[in-house]
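Intended use. Records like the one below are meant for learning the mapping from a protein sequence to its folded structure. Do not use them to infer anything beyond what is encoded.
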Amino acid sequence: MIPLASPDRLPRVMSAAVLFVLTSALAGLLISQPNGSRVAFAAGAAVALLIASVRAPRATLVGLLVWLVALGLVRRLMSHGGAISGTEDPLLLVGPSTWGVLVLTALSGRALHDRTRLTSAVLLLVALLTVSVLNPLQGGLGVGLGGLLIVVVPMGAFLIGRSFVDDRLFSRLLQVAAGLGIASALYGLFQTFVRMPSWDAAWVEAKGYAALNVGGVIRSFASFSSASEYAGFLGISIVIWVAHARGLRWPLTAAILALLSAALWYQSSRGIVVITVAAVGLVLSARTGMSWARSVLVCVVVIALVPTVVGRVAPSSFSENPADRLAEHQVDGLADPFGEGSTLPFHIELVGNGLRGAIRDPLGRGVGAVSIAADKFGGAGVSTEADPGDVAVALGMPGLLTYLAILSLGLSATYRLARRRRDTLSLAALGILVATSLQWLDGGQYSVAFWPWLVLGWVDRATASTDEPKGPGFAGLPRRAKFGITHV
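Structure written out for the chain above:
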């Protein structure tokens, strides 16, 4: 008779069996309860990612990107047509918990070595945001902690990028994002031109927030948790593919860019279209070796020409089908940015009010006041929908000056790196920073919020490896990493 286990292994086998039985019983108990399946699924996903974060942080970062892109779809599929609020949904905790472990891993590595001015500025902003949790003006400690979770946790990607995101891993992340962008665009176009899948339609009916509705037509949102997050991710994907396009790659890349651009156009958000055009302009300028001042001038001219181009190319009238009404919404705002059909004046006023708030409240109102935590936890929400206004409201003048320092240091360093290397990685990094500009602190866009901070961390690491050769640990990185299958 063959024994099931040797005597010395028997305790471990029995412990594993008991753990399996208890876990199965707990899972069964949870699934039998209202929303229990979400708790069980979230717990399983979190445990898997947390274990992977310790054992294989690089692979976990790639997996986390996929999870965040699919998060909205997973939430809708598990809602069974119902609506789960953000404060009750355990699925939203999987990402922050994984970011936390990855940040700890980064801190145990090289995250704080060879500290630069950009690193110090980011750490100062994180410290100011963290202390602002105690600000009573935002509506209570719960609101502050919610803002900390939403806004500050994704900023930890800076330390991750600085610690272990080398060129090879950054290339892999870009490849995954580029592929997910194509899948997301196809999903979004299906929602616009064919129909909303039943799980998406049920979510729209249950949630139905105003930003989804454009003149009675529902914007596409693909697999994401909001339409704005979908638009932001499309912008990131577009600049990655533009950075990738070279020589014989252009035909295929042009077809993919046409697909992504169509999806972005029919998503019907105007601001991201303009920002993406600016990002593409800066990427192409850096590729040609143009100076920073000239590239900014070119970018300003291109943006100024958008109304003229749209006004000349767009048809004079539109039909009543849903896609044409979304296109008409785009044309109304882009062809006449200060007209009645545009919300640009309203957004400018919001940011202006936020900047003036830095004078009224010199120390700000707290991080929770400018995040979705204010709505979820009963606080006083005063978001201006753009970083300069939000950071002024949240932290007052100290925070605004720190943010502007990060913006200046980060963009200038990234442009210098892109102009010097002119490879896919550095050009994509520049494009991502610009495509997400004015939204670096919008933690509610789960799959977008971490990108600018991860890029800044990678740029800081790459800059240290080229500008500061005396720093150990960076010299072995490839100078011009390629965007190809060899990096997978």
